[in-house]
Amino acid sequence: MAPARRSVLRKTVRPLSLSKGAIPMAHLFSYGTLILVTLLISLPVIWLVITSLKQETEYLAWPITILPEVAQWDNYVKVFTMGGFSYFNVAANTFFLATTNTILTLITSSMAGFAFSRFDVPGRDKLFMIVIALLIVPPIVTIIPQFIVFARLHLTNTYWPWILWGLTASPLHIFLFRQFFASFPRELEDAAEVDGCGPFRTFWQIFLPNAKPALATSFIFNFGAVWGDYFNPRIFLTDAQTTLAVKLSRAYADPVGNRFVTVTLAASVVYLLPLVVLFFLGQRHILKGVVTSGLRR
Asked: Quick check: 161 and 150 in contact, CB under 8 A?
């Protein structure tokens, strides 16, 4: 019996040893593909950083040089000293708009997502389909009616449009919160009802504190969208109240109007830094929020 057992063990162990040799090759191919795709996606950002360190003559030179002869760190100093405006004041305006709109959007969208996921009322699914259908409506379609309404209410050249947009929630974030809350067990609500919690208290004290991945994902997505928005500030705000996206697009130029491209690119790098930091701080929550939002009850 012992020799028979040994022969059986040899037959079962040998294929495993071969498969172990094949696993690193599969991983090598996967990681190689990921590295190649990452480099291709990162090329515009790499070009942006490298070109921001060049002289203006190097940027215009032909043939194109990849690396600058001497890194022009002074371009980043000019970001804050040129342009005829206070960079930090405009950055504060942008931060205020992005933060206010994002917080209001998270509150209203999470409440709507909670209602869609936990309240079984007639017409709920049809109403949710209408919300989903709004995702395919381009924002450019509604910009003219919105401008007319805000102009007649004398809300242009103010930050009220961003506040009202936040109070009306977002179809994308409603969908994300609805999917995330739908994965919560029904026992949580039952236990809350036994303790005497109403729907709002159940949402505020139980569901929302346990929705950190969804909150982080929604916060980063919405904050980045408002921070990088050029179109709406260009239409609704005056030059004194506008955001960095509008200011940086036309601030760095000589009196004739010739643009200082390298300084503008350096300003773009500084402009992107808050989003990069925010993403790296919340990337773990983003992954968890996107994955768990696809679960169903």
From this structure: yes
Structure tokens at 31: 């990681």
Alpha-carbon distance 284 to 291, whole Å?
Answer: 11
The span from the CA of 107 to the CA of 169, in Å, is: 8
Look at the block and give the residue holding tokens 């910009």. Answer: 143
pLDDT tens across 21-79, in order? 445 666 787 888 888 898 888 888 888 888 888 887 887 777 777 888 888 888 898 88
Rounded to whole angstroms, the Cα distance separating 38 from 249 reads 27
pLDDT tens sequence across 155-205: 999 999 999 999 998 999 999 999 888 888 888 888 888 888 888 888 888
pTM over 0.70: yes
Cα 38 to Cα 270: distance, rounded to the nearest angstrom: 22
Q: Which of 190, 153, 176 is nearest to 222 (CA)?
A: 176
Helices (H), the chain: 2-51, 56-60, 74-81, 87-118, 124-133, 139-152, 160-167, 171-182, 186-194, 199-202, 212-227, 231-236, 244-248, 261-292
